[in-house]
Amino acid sequence: MSANTDLESLLRAGDLLIAADGGGRYCLQAGCMPHILIGDFDSLSVANMDQLEASSTEVFRHPTHKDETDLELALDLAINRKFHEILILAALGGRWDHTIANLLLLGLPRFSAARIRLLDGNQEITMLCPRAVHVILGRPGDTVSLIPVSGDAHGVTTSGLEYSLQKSVLPFGATLGVSNTLTAAEATISLQSGLLICIVIHNPRQRAT
């Protein structure tokens, strides 16, 4: 979890806080007790486990030798409990294999019914799927990048961005969609085929003078 991501400020009444393995440690450090702890717990100390198990946290323990990462297990649980708005913190860490896998998890078809966002400080990452109009919220001047990840993205149309696209192709591997800019508080993006990783970098708010 980024040191700039304030977990407590994100929580709202009725939210379900799920900690995937080492996420339990981050919750404790933030002073927030998770409702659910899930994983094989190879990233939690005995002291952390004792503290979490002694609370009202519901624990789902999985074997170390499994086919899914702890984050995938956590997302499955959230989807099965009918949550359609999911925020993921602490998914962009020091291991590139986990980071890339966590990003691509958002493209799994069984997660497409939910709006899933990865938050890390002032950066927000989502996966954009075809045949839907995706609304991006921010402030004028925020950076928006669109990166195709499953081959070329076809029929890409945008509004509210400095460099607009109209049924355009974003080629896989090219940097055409990197470093666009919001011109309003809201932008819309749609595509006919392919998958796009959308990264929004929110600029710090200017203090009033």
Describe, in plain words, how this protein is organized in 3D.
Helices cover 20% and strands 29% of the residues. The model has no long low-confidence stretch (mean pLDDT 91). The chain has 5 helices and 13 strands. The protein is elongated, with a radius of gyration of 18 Å. It has a 6-stranded mixed sheet, with no helix packed on it. It has 209 residues and is α+β, with helices and mostly antiparallel strands. The chain has 2 domains: 7-121, Rossmann fold, CATH 3.40.50; 127-201, Jelly Rolls (Sandwich), CATH 2.60.120. The protein has helices at 7-10, 23-30, 46-53, 70-80, 96-105; strands spanning 18-20, 36-39, 58-61, 85-89, 115-120, 123-128, 134-137, 143-148, 153-159, 168-170, 180-181, 186-190, 196-201. β4 (85-89), α5 and β5 form a beta-alpha-beta unit.
